[in-house]
UniProtKB/TrEMBL annotation:
Superkingdom of origin organism: Bacteria
Compartments (UniProt record): Membrane
Keyword Membrane appears in the UniProt entry: yes
Keywords assigned by UniProt, alphabetized: Membrane, Transmembrane, Transmembrane helix
Protein name: Uncharacterized protein DUF4149
Record-annotated membrane-spanning stretches: 6-29, 50-74, 86-103, 115-136
Principal subcellular localisation of the protein: membrane
Domain TMEM205-like, residue spans: 14-111
Length: 142
């Protein structure tokens, strides 16, 4: 029983870090540096760090803990809702990679890429909310 609780707890902590980090970037970091002369450089530096921890590491661990939870709590990938969440997760990973490896890297020197990065980040945040909601519904057996 402890294994189920541990993996579910870890999955919730990772989701909190990922979605919470995006909220923090949007509501705290972005407004603070909006009018600063070092705005672009700060976004690049913060983006690099969050890309490593928030995207590459956290999303990888979310996939692993999500699959373990699917097997421990639901007997595998048999529920349609779990498969739908995996599809949403794949979309989130794709958008994260486009954001981090294409738009974000070019945003410093291109207003077009900066706009793309902003919109991709917002879309990913909204998809993150949807993924958390789906996780709650799955856990409640809905």
């Amino acid at each position: 029983m402890f294994t189920k609780e541990l993996f579910l707890w870890l999955h919730v902590i990772l989701a909190t870090f990922w979605v919470g980090g995006m909220i923090f970037l949007s509501l705290v970091i972005a407004p603070y540096i909006k009018d600063k002369p070092f705005r672009n450089e700060a976004f690049q530096e913060v983006g690099k760090r969050f890309s490593l921890y928030g995207t590459m590491i956290t999303l990888s661990l979310l996939l692993a803990t999500g699959l373990v939870n699917a097997y421990l709590l639901h007997g595998g990938l048999t529920k349609r809702s779990i498969m739908e969440k995996l599809g949403l997760f794949a979309l989130i990973v794709f958008i994260s990679l486009v954001h981090d490896l294409w738009a974000g890297k070019r945003a410093l020197n291109s207003k077009k890429h900066a706009l793309w990065a902003r919109w991709l980040g917002l879309i990913n945040l909204l998809l993150g909310f949807a993924a958390v909601y789906m996780g709650v519904r799955i856990r409640l057996g809905m």
